[in-house]
Each structure stands twice: as C-alpha cells, then as structure tokens.
Design goal:
Order of helices and strands: EEEHEEHEEHEEHEHEEE
Structural class: alpha/beta
Strand content: 25-35%
Low-confidence stretches: 1-17
CATH topology: DHBP synthase
Helix content: 10-25%
Shape: globular
CATH architecture: Alpha-Beta Complex
CATH class: Alpha Beta
Largest sheet: 11 strands, mixed
Number of strands: 13
CATH superfamily: DHBP synthase
Number of domains: 1
Radius of gyration: 18 Å
Distance between the termini: 44 Å
Number of helices: 5
Length: about 230
C-alpha cells in the first residue's frame, strides 16, 4: 500500500512515497476466525485489494461498490478498467435480483450448483453499481469456501473476483499462497493464506440466451446440475 509523506527540504516541496508490503494473513478455511476476517473486511471497506482463496484457484478482489478499487484490480491484471468483465462473489442467491435477471429454470440450476465451482454468466440489470454500468452481463460465483463467503457476508456487498495467474508458460495458476505473496506483496493490501489452492478454474455457464451454453469446462461437473 503506498503511503505518501510531504515535507520541505531546502525550501522546496518534496514528496516521498513508501511502498509497504501487503499483510500476510493465515486463515483456516474449515474454521475461519472472526478477528482475521474482520481485518480483511476493514481493508475492503477502506478501498483495499486482497488475494483470497476460493473452491478453485486463488482470486484477486475488492468491494464491487468501490470504483477506484475495481480500477486498481484492473491495473493489477493489466486490463483496461473500461473493458474488464469481472465476476462477483455473492454470499447466497437472496440478493441475485439486485445484480442480474434470471429465469426460473436457470435459478433452479444455480441452486443445484451453489455453493460450488461454477460461474454463471447472467443478464445484468440496471441496479448494478457505477463500476459495472453499461454491462450487459455479469458473472456470479458462490464458491464452496467459507472464507470468501463470510467476508462477503460481513462486508455487506459482493466482491469482484479474477483469477491469480502464474507467469509460468506451463502452469496457468499459482497454487502456493507464499508464492502468490511474493508476486503480489507490492500490488495488493492483504494476501490470505488458506493452504494450497486448486489449479483448475470454475466452470463457466452462459445463461444470457435461450439455452445455457458452457463457455469453459472447469472444476464443476455440469452433469450434476443440468
């Protein structure tokens, strides 16, 4: 996290920016402790960016309501903030209508799939926050991992999610949280260590047309929900 100090030297204004390394927080995914979760939530409320575990690969995210934080995640991923299409992690399906339009059949499918390693691409509605305006679709995730679910519940808003990719030409995703920390400690505010992650992403199902379409076969077994 950059901290800017201002002062004078030889009657001239100088500005010094110090880059502080991200916090490294270990959390047990089977029994997340409230103190650590609250620290993460406080960071998100302050506009912070975190790396966190899911039921698939590790993700980078922030409060979806914070425009500057969303833009920061886009820069970390070297994307144009106006062109990104981040998915969001929700705590449950109760507030789905706040972000997307979904039919009865798709909703039944989502109830079978969640919590689990799926991303459903749905038609976005006009209630989305400003950082998601002009979006025609939005990805919805409810991972089978208590850490992001409890973070979202405590925060009161969904968080955006984008996968932590590896620079290796063979390995797509970094699974070791200590390696993730070394790669992102100067880019994010908190890295959560919940043990090794998976190296297979979520299954993406587009439900924006007449029939569901599998855009990416990932960890989720579609036979169990169709």
């Amino acid at each position: 996290m950059p901290i800017t100090r201002r002062g004078t030297a030889n009657s001239l204004l100088w500005i010094e920016t110090e880059i502080m390394a991200a916090e490294y927080i270990r959390i047990n995914p089977s029994n997340p402790d409230s103190k650590s979760l609250n620290r993460v939530v406080d960071c998100l409320k302050a506009g912070g960016v975190i790396v966190y575990p899911t039921d698939t690969v590790y993700g980078i995210g922030c409060d979806m309501e914070n425009v500057k934080a969303v833009e920061r995640v886009a820069r970390i991923r070297e994307m144009d903030p106006k062109q990104v299409n981040f998915a969001i992690i929700c705590h449950n399906l109760s507030h789905l209508s706040s972000f997307a339009s979904v039919g009865t059949n798709v909703f039944k499918m989502m109830k079978k799939a969640f919590p689990g390693p799926f991303t459903f691409l749905l038609k976005a509605n006009k209630k989305l926050p400003s950082s998601f305006q002009d979006r025609r679709s939005i990805g919805i995730r409810i991972p089978d991992n208590e850490i992001p679910l409890q973070i979202v519940e405590k925060l009161g808003n969904p968080i955006i999610t984008t996968s932590v990719h590896d620079d290796d030409t063979i390995i797509d995703y970094t699974t070791d949280p200590s390696a993730i920390y070394e790669n992102f400690k100067d880019k994010v505010d908190i890295v959560i260590d919940a043990g090794f992650g998976n190296n297979i992403p979520s299954t993406i199902i587009a439900c924006t047309g007449d029939d569901p379409v599998i855009l990416r076969q990932g960890l989720g077994n579609v036979d169990a929900i169709f």
